[in-house]
Amino acid sequence: MKLRWDIFCKIVDNFGDIGVCWRLARQLRVEHGLQIRLWIDDLNAAQTIITNLDLAKNQQVCEDISILHWQEKADFSGAADVVIEAFSCGLPPAYLAAMAQQKSKWVNLEYLSAEPWVVDFHGKPSPQANGLTRYFYFPGFTESTGGLIRERDVEIGQETNHENTLKISLFCYPHASIHDLFTALQANNHAVNVYVPATSILPQIADFFGAETITAGDYFTHDNLHVHVLPFLSQTDYDTLLRDCDLNFVRGEDSWVRAIWAGKPFIWQPYLQDENAHIKKLDAFLELFYAGFSENKSTREVHQCWSAEHMSIDIWQSYLEHLPALKTYTLQQTKQLAKQPDLAAKLVIFCNNI
Ligand code: TRH
């Protein structure tokens, strides 16, 4: 009999919560043959990622995964064998009661971080009042963490040759200094093509070019800068775009991981957190990922600038000078990370053992 797994996803903000849960659900279904139900609190928001979702249905099957609308009146009576609570989203009391009956295994999937403390907390149990144990599962970059989401068929490091033009994808939070970046890019000594999937940054782009409206399909140019506005892509098409670019600006969690698997240089913008917690996250990642890159000063500076909402032209130019070396280094790091077991495979083993 197939093991039944339930994943609970609360969409707090943007696309990362559902982006991660959807990738994980699909991989557990396809590669591990598990019977998956994905509970989602906001179907409307989820539709951006699961495009064929029918908003009128509280229960439906997409790609062999049962999608259930997580709402107060839902039927929580049948708990699964394994329950994944994504990002401490909290579980409904009625479902917790059913889990206690079923003696379900309960894992809280945490956010990805390269901070060293993650290793000490990964896999730790937390006994609960209802007799169940909730386990903390931390994704991460080292063998002693829960790993990174990576499908079996992920294509790593496709060679691209864009002859004298630089191809960039841009996905970032609206507070990033797109104006500074574009100012630097337009003064580049050869053409730069920037591909921008439509998200909340479009007003900044329109503003830079003095356009009154902006929509997918639009093209803007100034000096050596060429900006192509794309529709918001499917996850598969987005992954393809990342592989096809020379440099990717990514953010949050899931696009960050995909940029790593694309094997191309990338600039990551962490999700803004209180008390500058995101800067600690950024520094920890830079420390870990670029430790073996001797010219890492400009890489650090460019990341710090991008997260600090200001991009100086000098720092940008110095970063670009190191891009060829960074290309080789990033691919090497990607291949190294891809030797580790992936998150889904490790999670399945972890759940078998608890
Ligand atoms: O959207 P994000 O900022 O998501 C999150 C959330 O904000 C979350 O609350 C926060 O805690 C977390 O970041 C750290 O960035 P992320 O994680 O990269 O998710 C974006 C998803 O959207 C990812 O699955 C890739 C996908 N995507 C597409 O499918 N098509 C596109 O065109 C683009 C630009 C992204």
Structural write-up:
By secondary structure, the chain is an alpha/beta fold. It contains 13 helices and 14 strands. The protein has 2 domains: 4-151 and 340-353, Rossmann fold; 166-337, Rossmann fold, CATH 3.40.50. Helices cover 37% and strands 19% of the residues. The strands form 2 sheets. The chain has an 8-stranded mixed β-sheet with strand order 3-4-2-1-5-6-8-7, with helices on one face. Strands 11-12-10-9-13-14 form a 6-stranded mixed β-sheet. Strand 1 (4-9), helix 1 (16-32) and strand 2 (35-40) form a beta-alpha-beta unit. It is globular, with a radius of gyration of 21 Å. The relative contact order is 0.13. The model has no long low-confidence stretch (mean pLDDT 96). The structure holds 2'-deoxy-thymidine-beta-L-rhamnose (TRH). Residues 12-17, 19, 49, 111, 171, 197, 199, 232-235, 238, 251-255, 271 line the site of 2'-deoxy-thymidine-beta-L-rhamnose.
Write a brief caption for the model.
With 354 residues, the chain is α/β, with parallel strands linked by helices. It has 13 helices and 14 strands.
**Bound molecule types:** 2'-deoxy-thymidine-beta-L-rhamnose
Described by strand count, sense and barrel closure, the largest sheet is:
8 strands, mixed
The termini sit apart by 19 Å
Which ranges are low-confidence, i.e. pLDDT below 50, for 5 or more consecutive residues? none
Shape: globular
